[in-house]
Design goal:
The chain is α+β, with helices and mostly antiparallel strands. It has ten helices and 15 strands. The termini are far apart. It comes from Rhizobium quercicola. GO terms for molecular function: DNA-binding transcription factor activity; sequence-specific DNA binding.
């Protein structure tokens, strides 16, 4: 038995929660994964995992072995990379998640610069605002708006999005202009932004000097994608509070009109998040650094 391989397999089973997902992320047959874990248990003369039909449960011995194993594997990975990185360009496949608006308007237009620097990295970009299981789906990092709440992720703030309230001319002709934020819950309708984390529509918060107004918007449509959210506002389906980089073009051509100009919407922070893995590989490190620099060098009206 290759004990090092068995340790890596055992760690992945613990991180993914079952043998099937572990086998899929490792690119191994499930029987190989099962046999390696069983061989490891036989070598150690203890049970590391209790199996049920739906999941595996880590035993006390298994939890202790896992904590030590990830330290050992991390040190080995660090040693290997410290030698190989000095001799070669970062390479391999990188799985990244981000909202479609970030991908279309910010990241993809700049990717030629990234590929000129790191031509041996292949990017798989998942587009959307959905919840992600970083370990089970083997996602390396994500660009997200809003303060992360998942304590298992490392979060690096890379900027802020300025927000503006706006509506289509058709909407204003039909409903008029709101005089204050509370009108969005009474006499007006807003496009609802459905948050993946909570499954509920995002509340809207405005400030005017010392006054603060938090509104649960009245809506006839809610969506969970930022591009659809802005398009719904352009279509006259309600007032939207959206990032400036997404709506500045529509404001300039008259497809949207800014409303509540005396009120300020708190900027939304932008974070790059990634799992607290044993070792941050060089390909992830260079992409995170490149993306952070990209976000910080954009003009203020682009973000």
């Amino acid at each position: 038995m290759d004990q090092l391989s068995a340790m890596r397999v055992f760690v992945r089973v613990v991180e993914t929660g079952n043998f099937t997902r572990a086998a899929a992320t490792l690119g191994m047959p499930k029987t190989t994964v099962t046999n390696l874990v069983q061989s490891l248990e036989a070598r150690l003369k203890t049970t590391l995992l209790n199996r049920t039909t739906r999941r595996v449960i880590v035993t006390t011995d298994g939890a202790l072995y896992y904590e030590r194993a990830i330290q050992i594997l991390s040190e080995l990975d660090e040693l290997d990379n410290s030698l190989s990185n000095s001799q070669s360009q970062p390479s391999g496949r990188l799985r990244v998640e981000m909202a479609g608006a970030f991908a279309d308007l910010i990241v993809i237009p700049a990717l030629c610069d990234f590929y000129q620097r790191y031509p041996q990295i292949k990017l798989d970009i998942g587009v959307g605002d959905r919840l992600v299981d970083y370990v089970a789906e083997n996602v390396d990092c994500a660009l997200r708006g809003g303060t992360p709440t998942d304590q298992t992720l490392i979060a690096r703030k890379v900027g802020e999005m300025s927000m503006k309230a706006c509506a289509a001319p058709f909407y204003i002709e039909k409903y008029g202009v709101p005089g204050e934020p509370e009108d969005l819950a009474r006499d007006h309708v807003a496009v609802g932004y459905l948050m993946a984390q909570s499954g509920r529509v995002l509340d809207l918060a405005f400030t005017h000097g010392a006054r603060r107004a938090e509104v649960i918007p009245n809506y006839i449509l809610s969506v969970n994608d930022a591009r659809s959210y802005v398009n719904a506002a352009i279509g006259g389906l309600g007032i939207a509070v959206a990032p400036g980089f997404m709506i500045n073009g529509a404001l300039e051509r008259g497809a949207l009109i800014e409303v509540l100009p005396g009120w300020t919407v708190e900027p939304v922070p932008l974070y790059i998040v990634y799992p607290q893995r044993r070792h941050l590989s060089n390909k992830v490190r260079v992409f995170v650094d490149w993306l952070a620099k990209l976000m910080q060098t954009l003009p203020a009206d682009r973000v």
